[in-house]
Amino acid sequence: MRENLLAEIVDGFDDIVWALSLPSLTPIFFNDAALRLYQCSHLDLIENSQRWLLAIAPEDQALMQQAIATVQLSGSAKINYRISLSNGNFRWLSARLKISNNDLGEPIRIDAIASKLNAELEQRIEERTRDLARSEARNRAILQTMPDLLLLLKPDGTCLECFMPASPEREKYLPIHTHISEVLSSEDLQIQLNLYQQVITTGEAHIYEHPIVKFGKITYEEVRIAPYFEDELLVIVRDITNRKLVEEQLIKSDTHLKTAQRIGKIGSWEFDLTTGNVVWSEEVFRIFGRDPQIGTPTYPELREYLHPEDWQRFDETVQEAIANGKSYEIEHRICWQNGIIIYVYARGEIVCDQAGNPTQIFGIVMDISGRKKIEHELETLTDRLTVALKAASIGIWEWDIINNSLFWDDRTYELYGVNPETNKDAYQAWASRIHPSDRAFAENEVHLALIGEKEYEPEFRIMLPDGNIRYLKAHALVQRHENNEPRRLIGINFDITDRKLAEAELNRSRELREAIFNESTDALFLVDTQTLLTIDCNKYAVQLFEAADKSQLIGIEGHTLQRSLFTDQELEKINLELKTNGFWSLEVEYITLLGRVFWGNLAAKPIRLLDKTINLVRVTDISDRKRNEAKILHTAHQLELTNRELESFSYSVSHDLRAPLRHMNGFVNALQQQLKKHEAADDPKVIHYLDVVHNSSQKMGHLIDGLLTLSRYGRRPLEVKPVSIRQLVDSAIEIICADSSYSTRVEFAIGDLPDVMGDPTLIQQVFCNLIGNAMKFSRHQPQPRIEIDSLPDQTIRVKDNGVGFQMEYADKLFGAFQRLHTEKEFEGTGIGLAIVQRIIQRHNGRIWAESQPNNGATFFISFATKT
User: Fold this and answer.
1) Is the domain covering 717-862 a CATH 3.30.565.10 domain?
2) Which of 347, 458, 465, 549 would bridge with 329, disulfide CB 3.0–4.6 Å?
3) What does the alpha-carbon distance between residue 526 and residue 537 come to, in Å, rounded to a whole number?
4) 3-state secondary structure 413-430
5) What is the C-alpha to C-alpha distance for residues 164 and 147, in angstroms, rounded to an integer?
6) More confident residue, 433 or 715
């Protein structure tokens, strides 16, 4: 009731009344005068909580915010401000703001009463406001030019105003928003508040210096505190860190100078030209290796210390400087008595009198032995770098971006296949050599490096004049101005063609390995060496074990697919053999997932894959081989029976066939004796018939001997041992030449011959046959020649210059009873080369022949096993 009555009374006021709720500052009441001024309803002002504030002139809104902050701190505030009217004009109001508390004394509301000012007063206020605004602008401009932080504070540390200095001084201070506790520790805060109270009480300003931690480091400040109003303080804070540092530097400078001379190995000296007196600092004595107790040497005595090769140059330099009245500098050597040589840099300044005559020389001498050593090492390093760049085929280039000029060294021209004499424009030479597909990329890499987005280290291709492609790798460093603009690009190029080709080959090999793994006709598994579980398998494994997909074969123990599982002891033995020998294999019966049984050859080998050791397991389906082995065993048994029959046959041939031949020869001899008694042996026909019978029986005997020999060499067990082919060849030649039926005119040329593993008796028979044939078929040559040597792969070669043969008949050479010449031309049974081939085959070797008619024949022998 009371509140309604009060509202009715207030609504009758001509003054504007409004209220804000605390602490939200939302409007809760406007009287009718306010509604008329704002030209809206009470509901609009309440619901749109910012409308009343936005109606205030923009220049005065900050003043209203300040007044609201002040009334919350002090309980009351005054403000003159303007309201924007709908016609574009302003209405001046003078407002008083006050805090209203509840029964508990807690602030709950800001009440305000604003009176309209008359036109004359408005004009005066407006003029005064403009003057104050200009004055405030001037003051703020002055404050912003000051290097100090200015604070307007309450004695309790509340910050009313904080004036930050302009940059770069602004970076030295921490801004204070509401209270100085934002930047001070609790201990420093209490000291400050005590000082504020002292200044308020005494009315006298206070100045002091103190260290403070800002931005993580200790700085120094000078603080001036002065009373401003009865309850306000003006605090001026100046950062004096630099001044403190300068003071400390000044204190230390004398010590530093003395220490610097000692550390920098720099000594000072004076030379009075009128008196000849010389003054040295302590460091000069050390540099010259002279005891200070001896005293300073005279100028002529310096010659004893300077290197003999340097004195004349030094003296001429000093005398010229004195004559011209100018300073001088020189580098020379000093020789100590113990033989040590010191390199020094000397500089002198000539001092003249008013008449221009030189009177004194002030100078310094610096020990530069360390620098000279570094220069020597740098020169050596430069030479080494030059050699390394040349050895590594690295080309150096430099692009001056400002002048747009590109420099190449000789190696860069070589890399690009460009002649520097005929191609002066290096950039054009570079652009013309870039592979068309890489040019845009290469130019963009340069652009990205210049704008700083990435380092310049591209790889690109170039086209050489001969059409070949070369891969190059580039590295470059961008040098920039202070404004970060690029000014120079210095880089290198080097040939990475071999690496690129190797990478391509590596990728091809990787793809090939993948293809081999997946397309292999064996089942392949990758098995974890610790868990023995399968990690992966190939396609054929899925097919062989009749699985639906890989998932059925991964994550299982492989031996669970066997017909009989390995025992733990067997698994341990397998692992031990893998670790010891690096390989393990066994033939195992498997059962597929569909129940089919098959034989497999199981093999395992540890391999490295992605820095981890795993087992590569192979399962080869050997079911067909097992069946064939069974057939072979059966066949072998049949062959064994056949061999026994052949042995019986050989015995029969040897015994039963030779007996009739002996009878024939015997009866021929008896018949010849009878014919001689009856004087009928001179009949040519009779003689011819008897010779035919005799020769035929002899030939039949030789054929039987050959067959028996061929059979015997096919069955005889081999006695394998190391064999020297050279010894066997020499022995065979000796045996054959002892036979009078062979010509002794043959020239033998024996070259390097290998050692092999074999049966020496059988191998000697090979060379007896081959050498005997070579002598037989070359005996009609004017100068028979036989060459016996070996090829680089240790293939043995027996070559003659005999009659030779047509290569179309070469496949008949090694057949039994096969002849390429008539028996009248060259005797023989046709079994010798068959025996040779049988012996070589038993040694798992190979024999073949090459020839042309009338150009001799060459036989080649390759043994499977060499020593």
Assistant:
1) yes
2) 347
3) 6
4) HHHCCCCCCCCCCHHHHH
5) 9
6) 433
